[in-house]
Write a structure and sequence with these properties.
Number of strands of chain A: 8
Shape of chain A: globular
Strand content of chain A: 5-15%
Oligomer: homodimer
Largest sheet of chain A: 3 strands, parallel
Distance between the termini of chain A: 24 Å
Largest interface: A-B, 92 and 91 residues
Strand order of the largest sheet of chain A: 3-4-5
Number of helices of chain A: 11
């Protein structure tokens, strides 16, 4: 995702190569991004002498933290003194409650330096991670969620939103971190749990001979980044388990209708589902 | 699906318009197909004087029965005497046990006339039905399942398979009706039940603001044809309920892992899921 954002900044937002920096724990990724004409310089965060990261942060007017939630908290703790005065910080993590709390704390800590942290979540992942697959992340017509904290400056929020639209996203929704985590537990995490369960319960590797698109569509995201999704599930456990239970209730209702031979009621319920899904598409 | 097959026969298999006939309960559909240069003549099966259907069947060397399972059984019963001697009959129904039994019975009934019925299932549906949406059914690179009965003539089977490949399908798998129904309960029906349950448990019509592709991919098929899917679920109830329960077991396992805070075990299980899904793609 970091690579995809760097590409969008270069190609969609008119940011020149000499004004783009990146840090990563993989030096090959940094070299590839530099050779691709994306970034001016890369800073190896895993290097024993990681002072370069601080040097980089001291140069940046805007910083995208493209890490999982726990790494963002660690990064902020380690480098909180290195961010440039007046800079705007944002992130892309898939859960927002802990990030919003960390953003509050960080802004408070650097309040005399006018640093602003606006938590965000671009809804545009890909099954494959890594810089080599970053072009698979297509931002066009995608959603972006922001969960601003009360102290965010309106002009910084407008600045970040203008960049997001330039990157290709078509809709920005602002909600509280709690609301974000509750919605995302449904649209993203529950869907990944379901896809994983579908693959978990079938051992026939040649089952795709019997696929007509539905199975493929429902399980593509089962090719997930296991460590990242484990963290997201655990981080948002409470909201996710609520959603799993709501889903199980609906599944159980449908199962009961199928088992009861009550074709009329089943058809009625499926018709309501169809209408609701069509209506959701209209709102889209 | 009937319209899509007619188009494929015309454009991919070199069948001329004057050799293609269709019957339907909607006269507008028949007129549209004729005006589109697809069929020579349409026969309105719902018409009080439906004798035309018998006249049509007497002309056909190959017949595609594009109906749901119960309608196929009724059609065969009503028109069993009208099929042309030596003709090859096939169908497209999503469950095969009852169709294979009906095919046996029908072939036995017309055994002196050398009529052959080879049950089949093209894995290439679309959310939207009707002739106007028939171009949404894309057969290219799709799967086709055949469940031949023991009395099917090898040369008829080869003839049907050659047409299927010409229509664009890339893989034909031959299995028993029971095996078909067991596999399809998983790849198709369970997936539709899951998609329906996902929509059933969420009433927020603007939830797509929080969608990043996963939710959309998992619920597209919730825009289902309720009467048809009700019949398919009911027809294949036993195999489908088995699959729902296998899925529920895996879902419950994942839920337990998320709830137990056992990140290590959850990550291990998700890694196995990822590997299995990647392997399935390789076999695809």
């Amino acid at each position: 995702m970091g690579g995809a954002i760097a590409k969008a900044l270069r190609t969609q937002c008119g940011v020149t190569q000499k004004r783009l920096f990146a840090c990563d724990q993989d030096n090959d990724t940094l070299n590839a991004a530099q050779q691709a004409g994306l970034i001016c310089k890369g800073f190896d965060v895993s290097h024993a002498d990681a002072r370069g990261v601080g040097e980089m942060l001291a140069l940046c007017d805007i910083v995208f933290l493209c890490l999982n939630p726990s790494s963002i908290l660690r990064f902020l703790e380690q480098w909180k003194d290195s961010f440039k005065n007046n800079c705007v910080v944002t992130d892309i993590a898939g859960t927002k409650a802990s990030i919003a709390a960390a953003a509050e704390k960080f802004c408070e800590y650097r309040k005399n330096d006018n640093i602003d942290f606006i938590p965000g979540h671009p809804m545009a992942g890909a099954e494959k991670s890594g810089f080599n697959n970053s072009s698979l992340c297509n931002f066009n017509e995608k959603n972006y969620i922001l969960t601003p904290i009360s102290r965010n400056e309106p002009n910084n929020l407008e600045f970040l939103k203008s960049i997001i639209y330039k990157m290709g996203f078509s809709r920005i929704t602002e909600v509280t971190p709690v609301e974000h985590d509750r919605k995302i537990a449904f649209t993203s995490q529950l869907c990944h749990v379901i896809a994983a369960a579908l693959i978990d319960c079938e051992s026939d590797l040649e089952i795709t001979r019997f696929g007509g698109g539905s199975f493929e569509d429902l399980t593509r995201i089962a090719m997930l980044n296991a460590p990242m999704w484990t963290e997201l599930f655990m981080e948002n456990r409470s909201a996710l388990l609520d959603r799993v239970e709501q889903f199980e209730k609906s599944l159980d209702d449908l199962k009961t209708l199928i088992n009861s031979d009550n074709a009329k009621e089943l058809e009625k319920r499926l018709s309501l589902v169809r209408e609701r899904r069509v209506e959701m598409s209209r709102k889209d």
